[in-house]
C-alpha cells in the first residue's frame, strides 16, 4: 500500500490561520513529503466555501511540480464540468510537461449546486457533460496530432495538441460513489477513488458494485485509491484536540448537501443526516484515523483488511491546524506508521 497526502488548503472560520498561510506551507512541506517517502500529493477542488478549498487544483499542482521531483501529482478531485474542455486539456498537457509526466487526473461530475449556478453550467446535465469531457480528453491524449471532436457539448476543429503530453496515456480516476456512476467508471476502465465521507461498510459496498460491472466488461482494476482524514500526534488526546473542530466543520458541507437531498450522508450508526446543525466529531469517528502512532497503525490496518486499498491519500492538512503540528503529523506517520505496512 502506498501512502500519499491530500491537500485542500482548508481554514477554520475564525481561526488565525488564513488560506494564504496554507498556500505558504507548500514551500517547506512539499519537499519534506517527498523526502519522507510519500508517494503522491493529491489536491481537491471546491468553490465559494467559507472554509477555503482551492478552486484551481491544477494551479496548485503546478507549484508543487516545481517543488518536487518524484511524487505523483493528482487532482483529487477536479470538477471538470466547471471547466472549458479545450482549456482544461491544454492545461493538463502543459502540467504533464512541467512535471515530466507525473500527472494523474482525478475527476468528478460535481455535486455542489451553487458552484454550477455561479458558473452557468446546467446542474441537471452534469453527468452527460462529464462523460463527454472525458471522451474528449482521452481521445486527444491518445492522438495529440489531431484533437478534432464533435459532440453534443464539445466541438473542436482538427488542430494539434501543443505541447504534446509526456505520458502516452492520461491516467484518469473517477471520484464517484453512486451506482450508475460507478458503472460508468467500470465500463470506461478507470479506477475509482473513494470519498472521505463514506464509512468502511459503504466503501465495501461501492467497490463490490464497481468490480461486479468491471468483471462483466472484462476489466481488472489494479488501482484502488482511498481518501481518509488522518492525523497523528504524540498522544490521541492531543491529536483530537487539534483536529476535531476542523473535521466537524468539514462535515458541515456534506451535511448541508444531505439536508438538501443532493448527496446522502449517514453517521456511523446509519442515521441519515437531515440537518447541518449539531454536527459532532464523534458521529463520524469510523471515517477517519486520528490518534497516536499506535492508534493510527490500528486504524490503517482495519481499513486495509476491510477495503484493501492500493493507495491511501491522507488529508492531514485540516482546518485550523498549525503548520508545525501538521509537519509533526507527517513525520510521525512516515517514521512510525508507514514501516508497519512495508
What would you say this structure looks like, in words?
The chain has one domain: Luciferase-like domain (TIM Barrel). It is 44% helix and 14% strand. The strands form two sheets. An eight-stranded parallel sheet has the order 7-4-3-2-1-10-8-9. Strands 5-6 form a two-stranded antiparallel sheet. The chain is α/β, with parallel strands linked by helices. The chain starts with a strand and ends in a 5-residue tail after the last helix. The protein is globular and about 60 Å long. Helix 1 (19-36) crosses helix 2 (57-67), helix 1 packs parallel to helix 10 and helix 6 crosses helix 7 (200-217).
Mean pLDDT: 94
Largest sheet: 8 strands, parallel
Query: Uncertain segments of ≥5 residues (pLDDT<50)?
Result: none
The quaternary organization reads as: single chain
Order of helices and strands: EHEHEHEHHEEEHHEHEHEH
Beta-strand content estimate: 5-15%
Supply the helix-strand structural class: alpha/beta
Name of the top-level CATH class: Alpha Beta
CATH superfamily: Luciferase-like domain
CATH topology descriptor = TIM Barrel
Strand order of the largest sheet: 7-4-3-2-1-10-8-9
Q: What general outline do the C-alpha atoms trace?
A: globular
Condensed summary:
By secondary structure, the protein is an alpha/beta fold. The chain has helices at 19-36, 57-67, 85-98, 113-119, 126-142, 179-188, 200-217, 236-259, 293-307, 323-337, and strands at 2-7, 40-43, 72-79, 103-108, 149-150, 155-156, 172-174, 225-232, 288-291, 311-315.
Element layout with pairings:
Elements: E1 2-7, H1 19-36, E2 40-43, H2 57-67, E3 72-79, H3 85-98, E4 103-108, H4 113-119, H5 126-142, E5 149-150, E6 155-156, E7 172-174, H6 179-188, H7 200-217, E8 225-232, H8 236-259, E9 288-291, H9 293-307, E10 311-315, H10 323-337
Parallel strand pairs: 1-2, 1-10, 2-3, 3-4, 4-7, 8-9, 8-10
Antiparallel strand pairs: 5-6
Helix pairs in contact: 1-2, 1-10, 2-3, 6-7, 9-10
